TrEMBL record:
Domain of life: Bacteria
Species this chain originates from: Paenibacillus elgii
Protein name: Aminoglycoside phosphotransferase domain-containing protein
InterPro entries: Kinase-like_dom_sf
SUPFAM superfamilies listed in its UniProt record: Protein kinase-like (PK-like) (SSF56112)
High-level lineage: Bacteria, Bacillati, Bacillota, Bacilli, Bacillales
Amino acid sequence: MKARIEAALQLAGLGKNGLQVSYLAEGAWHEAYLISTTETGPLVVRFPKPFSYGKPFVYNERELRAEYGGRGLYYRLANGVSEGICPPYYTYYVSPELSFTIETYSGPVMSLAAADEAEVARWGAQCGRFFRNMDQVSVELEGFGFLDWKAGKLAGDHQQDFRAYWAEDTEGYLETWERLQRAGYGGEAAVVKRMLEEIVPFRLRRTPRLSLTNRDVSPENLIICEAGVRLIDPVPIVYDGFAFAGNVLNNFNTLFPSFHRSPRYERHRFDRYRPLLRAFADGFLEGYAQGDPEMVYALRVEQYLMLLDLTCDHIGLLEREMTEEAMLRYGDKAAVEERIPVYIAALEQFRLS
């Protein structure tokens, strides 16, 4: 591994004198190493894992440039909004022989075990304020959606009229209650239907705004230091910022604490930290909305739709054979089936304000 890291440093134009290497962590797709030399401060180098979700790594230049280049773009815009919230140094390289990223080491990830609710709520509020400010920044990319690499530059993977897409996507929710009804949740589906009859017209009236937002905010990629919260390893997406602020609320309130039987998340045992995760979400909502009741309502609408999507996704998993990747992400069918009533109850009890 040291030879690979030395090769990466050379390709990045960094010296290797006095190189020190220690294993740091692994995520779903990459393994990370903490390194330092006599010429640099602490850095993190990431390499693609040989296997992810049961599948071998296959080099794809377009996908890697979209992922690595998109992360660099997000870091640059984010640091322009809030200096130092993301690593200030970042570079990447892709080739069939060696692909990697190198960035400034930001510190250890969030430790829920060492935190209290008030502290976590402050972290959430800082993150919410940053998200709100980030959503005001215009992004000069063609299209929308997840990032792609086309003709030597980044672009959204959807090249169509966003307003038309938004309207079609929103109107599609009017039929999702039938999915619950067919799955045997007739009474609950009626409650969901009434909710959708309220929020779909509201969402159609709201004017969505494209920004470079982040789909992947979790305790795994939040760094806590003396200055507050730092963000690493985002999954950038050009989309309406409210939608993915609602995603943060749904993940911390519902998804993370319910995924303790997922191989992807089981080591974190987020189910043991439900009050802390909820405190982060409450702080995030407060930091983003800043006391504006209309904004709270709009964010809760997006949170509800993310919860509804999560529920329907789980119902769909029970209707087909699960792949190895799906089982690593979600757990087996017993784990999936166990979550559905929890999500149904959350949909029934959901309040928009």
